[in-house]
UniProtKB/TrEMBL annotation, chain A:
<keyword id="KW-0804">Transcription</keyword>
<feature type="domain" description="SET">
    <location>
        <begin position="765"/>
        <end position="880"/>
    </location>
</feature>
<keyword id="KW-0805">Transcription regulation</keyword>
<feature type="region of interest" description="Disordered">
    <location>
        <begin position="888"/>
        <end position="914"/>
    </location>
</feature>
<protein>
    <recommendedName>
        <fullName>[Histone H3]-lysine(27) N-trimethyltransferase</fullName>
    </recommendedName>
</protein>
<dbReference type="InterPro" id="IPR045318">
    <property type="entry name" value="EZH1/2-like"/>
</dbReference>
<dbReference type="InterPro" id="IPR041355">
    <property type="entry name" value="Pre-SET_CXC"/>
</dbReference>
<dbReference type="Pfam" id="PF18264">
    <property type="entry name" value="preSET_CXC"/>
</dbReference>
<dbReference type="InterPro" id="IPR001214">
    <property type="entry name" value="SET_dom"/>
</dbReference>
TrEMBL record, chain B:
<keyword id="KW-0677">Repeat</keyword>
<dbReference type="InterPro" id="IPR036322">
    <property type="entry name" value="WD40_repeat_dom_sf"/>
</dbReference>
<feature type="repeat" description="WD">
    <location>
        <begin position="144"/>
        <end position="179"/>
    </location>
</feature>
<dbReference type="InterPro" id="IPR015943">
    <property type="entry name" value="WD40/YVTN_repeat-like_dom_sf"/>
</dbReference>
<protein>
    <recommendedName>
        <fullName>Fertilization-independent endosperm protein</fullName>
    </recommendedName>
</protein>
<dbReference type="InterPro" id="IPR019775">
    <property type="entry name" value="WD40_repeat_CS"/>
</dbReference>
<feature type="repeat" description="WD">
    <location>
        <begin position="98"/>
        <end position="140"/>
    </location>
</feature>
<dbReference type="Pfam" id="PF00400">
    <property type="entry name" value="WD40"/>
</dbReference>
<keyword id="KW-0853">WD repeat</keyword>
Amino acid sequence: MDDDDNNDAGEWLSEKTRFKMAQVEEKTVSSKEILSVIDSLKKQVAADRSLSVKKRLEENSKKLGGITNHLYTLSNERRSSWIGDTDSASDLLTKRQKDALGMQNGIDLSNGDDDGYSYQEPSTAVLMGSSIPVKNAVRPIKLTEVKKLPPYTTWIFLDRNQRMTEDQSVVGRRRIYYDQNGGEALICSDSEEEVIEEDEEKKEFFESEDFILRMTIKEACLSDPVLESLAQCLSRSPAEVKARYETLMKEKDVEASKNRDIEAQNWNSFLEKDLEAALDSFDNLFCRRCLVFDCRLHGCSQDLIFPADKQNPWNHPDEENAPCGPHCYRLVLKSERNDTVRSPMNPEDKSNSSSDGVGAQISSKKSARRKAKSSQSESASSNTRNLSESSDSEIRPGHEESSPTPQLSPSKNKIAGKSGILKRNSKRVAERVLICMCKRQKKMTASESDSLASGCVSPTDMKLRSNPRKQSEDATSSSHKDVKSSNTGRYRKKDWTLKGVQGEVPPNETVNDLALTSSNDFSIREEFVDENLGKQELSDDNSWKAIEKGLFEKGVEIFGRNSCLIARNLLNGLKTCWEVFQYMTGADNKLAYHAASGVLSLLEGCSKYDLNGAMGSNEVRRRSRFLRRRGRVRRLKYTWKSTAYHSIRKRITERKDQPCRQYNPCSCQTACGKQCSCLLNGTCCEKYCGCPKSCKNRFRGCHCAKSQCRSRQCPCFAADRECDPDVCRNCWVSCGDGTASLGVPPQRGDNYECRNMKLLLKQQQRVLLGRSEVSGWGAFLKNNVGKHEYLGEYTGELISHREADKRGKIYDRENSSFLFNLNDQFVLDAYRKGDKLKFANHSPEPNCYAKVIMVAGDHRVGIFAKERINAGEELFYDYRYEPDRAPAWARKPEASGSKKEDGAPWSGRAKKLA
Amino acid sequence: MAKTPIGLEPVVGSLTSTKKREYRVTNRLQEGKRPLYAVIFNFIDSRYFNVFATVGGNRVTVYQCLEGGVIAVLQSYVDEDIRRMSLSTLNEKIHKSFVGHGDSINEIRTQPLKPSLIVSASKDESVRLWNVHTGICILIFAGAGGHRNEVLSVDFHPSDIYRIASCGMDNTVKIWSMKEFWTYVEKSFTWTDLPSKFPTKYVQFPVFLASVHSNYVDCNRWLGDFILSKSVDNEIVLWEPKMKEQSPGEGTVDILQKYPVPECDIWFIKFSCDFHYNSAAIGNREGKIFVWELQSSPPVLIARLSHAQSKSPIRQTAMSFDGSTILCCCEDGTIWRWDAVPAN
């Protein structure tokens, strides 16, 4: 029937179409016509749909037929394989089956066979519904009783807290309860906020909807009434429909070009990325607090915080003069009889200047690339360019991986991607200010010259740069025989010219003339470059890939200006020591050039681009370096009465009625001022903050010597914090048999060991899970422990208070709750994820207590013995029930809950029956 | 639920009975006063295709269907604490007791390709895979991506041995794959140590999550690669899970067909299929049974069965191997047997 309709509709449609075509020209399509078109299309779609469903069902059933036949064979095989099986139970079944058949036929087959069965009740089958009277009912076989487990919900073991993932949330979700008594489902959503936030997401257009859309517009033209009725039909707004139509039209064009892109995407190698792109996953997925990838506690994509304090470069005392290998710069230099060898100097002094030099180096490389790029990317003024760069940054971060990055043509994508990363990791900006500055300044030269030589296409453009350079190099190469005119540099440059110009090499002079005549400005700048020997590095740079440069830069940070170490540790297999050395010295020269052209760059570069406040952060950087030095002095003068302690004490006193505050590292690059997020939030700064160690808001750890940090005399202990070997002075961990120690010279207190790091070190007691003497499950101790001994951590999911309120309602219904207030932001929930301590029951006279402790910036719940506990004893703590909510067994015979321990940091939400 | 977009509407079966096949009541028996929650035929061993079992209260009873409507009681087991439990496609002997679930079990199914594997759905929000021969709990399907409430039903994929589908009171249907954990399944067959020492693994994330229903989902079955599931919406829904290869756990649901079942709006009513999945039978709140032809499009209602004395809600039906016999067990503890009238 449907099919007939469909055919009719089809014919009718085509007729209509013809009719419509005629109408279109007059553009008098009535709404009725439109509706009928849409209607018929809809019918067609519906028919197509039922057809496709039918087809799919048929395919599926064909497949299924084979499967069930196979299963049938299997079940037949089982029949034969089990014949001869003497298993008594299956025999019993078979026999009874026969009995039943026999009984029905009036023949008793079961005569005398009874003794053969192991079952105590060999009753034969009982027939029901037949004419044979039924006298005896089958006596049931009692199954051996299995002791029932106390009920629990399947849970996952966690050894450290986890933050709740988005999909675990119960907020905004309806929950249905089955009323055991009434036999009805109750939909439970508490109040206003629960009003379902349904279907906010934009509905996508389906294929069939696209079809209707396209066809209707094709037939009835694009006009408002058409759009309106379409919108009605698809239950969307006319604007949406129109937008969709336009994208549909565009998609057609895009499709063709897509294929080309895909081809180009393939050649992309790891080395083509720069260091930041390569480090992307490290930056975004590696947790610097837990030192693991994909941290479940702090989550990925945390804000990157770079400490303002930089470590001093690694000082390598040995091998001062020994060559590191066959390519060591020492050897090469010796062989060239160069007497201007710079011995590795005091690395500390050098590191800053050299990293600046590297910045310059990078920028020059950038500009070289940019020059190599086709003129179109440069013809725009540098200002707009700059703008587009920053606007690109939002869109482009991922682009770099997919975009083709051949060596000479990529500059636009490459740079955009690069700047995207820069922008994204805005924290890095401070570090890179110099680089950016130089880059821009370079860009200036490039863009200016490009606009001047506006007619030139890319090869010519490139010649402009390469040829003068070549020329001047020829001129100067004899005079600069030392470091500069190395073989590699030469070789590379040739290579570069070859690639870039691709055979079409016009005479040098003409190009040079052209360049010179086109603009004085330009020529002056070029001279600048020439004078400062920049060109050699530029050509040299080409052999240095972005990632290599990045690695070099890091190397300078770590090892100072030690090309041996840098080459060996960071650029192993990529660059030799000699190459690194050359690069490094090249950077120095670059620096000199910058000094020379400083006026110019300040005038033209900075004044135009300080819009971004780049200069401002440059200032910041310098200041922080200054402060660092000061900070070191301060530390020596440091006393107990430092302000940090003051604020801590305050917190302790306040905390009685106020939960602790969640710590989030601040990203201050200088000593924290009023804007510091930690300060505003009321937490101390920790070692994870960006601020220098001299920050007044830092918690300074303890200096305890003999007390083992177990009393309130220890500032850490008093502040409910665990000691941190990174922060405290004397707290350390003994290693192995205790003879060797980490980080502390042995003369300091031989038998001393900090006792306030148990959570950090997971020095916990063995806890056993068993049947509680009170109710449901319980937690028991395996060994004896003394008073105030740490037993273990109470782990769970970290959920927000809002989430906890919602879950609490659910748990209350189920009469079991594993919630713990942790701090002002989070509640711990051990319902589905936790550890065995979650099974410890409530008691008004507990033998344990829980305490929220700050461990390396995180709040964690430790369970401690309140008194001496013997092995095998069940653990209890006081959940701090509100008096009326405690279950009957948890109530004290006398007044309930009158005994309150002072200083207990957590208010118990927990309540459970299990 | 979101409105179905144009072009993806399901094909809905018509409730006019075609009377392709007629059934009549041939037997009726009262097992006890307690509600019967499950009835199921054995499909594993062809010797016992006419054997079925019922579960109600703490009792499991094994019966046999004989010709002429006769039902024979074969065995009966009593347990102290089994409550509301549905048997798998019936192993005819109780091998072992399995301890592990933290709460009562709602359904058990046997892997037709490897009958020693059973999977159980429990109130403790987990699905567990067991090896009956060694008594090992091999896998636990629960955790971060697991069910958020009782699991009511579970089923093995008929051909893909790694795949199971489960559904429950969190309104979702989840498809799980144990492919990556298959070594543990194999290990369980040769395990000689104590079952409790077996390294039971957690499967925390399903490969597919479907929100087809907006209420408890109390029964699901694979129909080839499609899934039949039902909630309290007076219908059985047939849908196809369309998975995205790159991102497990995501995907879309294409609802293909709907089989309306009037007066079926209370939960814990389960349907059943015959061996070849040609037809399915489901009871309703008023004691009526609807027999649907599953694999035709649009769906065809084969028969609507009603009896003047059958008033109690039917919790589950069982179809025999060829669909000629339908059993149903009711809230009032009765078992009804319907036989197809030979077509002449």
